[in-house]
């Protein structure tokens, strides 16, 4: 048995298909590409495929990951080409790597995501103001968000401090009424924060005149953390 970790992109119209539909599509593609995929044991066997973390609907990405287990070793360039030939426009395998078959699942190692967010502005502001407001925003020790928690058919409001989940936020560039921000936020079982929530809080707490309904989000990379350093899933293979 062999385990392959693959990085793929999701762009174009494919950003509007759900994660569940993506999983089903990948299963069909692997069959059509004649990949000797391994299956689980039991009465209802499933292909051994696992994704890192679901991408929100409408978000594009060049940093998605999937692990597959196969029954026989295949040259990685052949494997990648076979799969890409069957994938629809908008989904593309970028890189493949053999990893230890006993390596941790992707969902267990991913802790942070990096995004680029393109925003439209209500009115023109200076780059100096954008940099200053981002700096002041990140100086906050507490940024509260209300979250509704459902428990035993009851809804309860809870205040959560999301500041520890915002690992990095930077102004990248500006072109008249368009600006781009880069951010790294917590992702996964230890904490999860959507980039649009960060933008909502920027609108609430700063003087940056962002039009919330006109933001475009693109995921660049997923990271694990080893000894305080960010590492990609390709660097965690055991």
UniProtKB/TrEMBL annotation:
<dbReference type="InterPro" id="IPR018768">
    <property type="entry name" value="DUF2344"/>
</dbReference>
<feature type="domain" description="DUF2344">
    <location>
        <begin position="3"/>
        <end position="195"/>
    </location>
</feature>
<dbReference type="Pfam" id="PF10105">
    <property type="entry name" value="DUF2344"/>
</dbReference>
<protein>
    <submittedName>
        <fullName>DUF2344 domain-containing protein</fullName>
    </submittedName>
</protein>
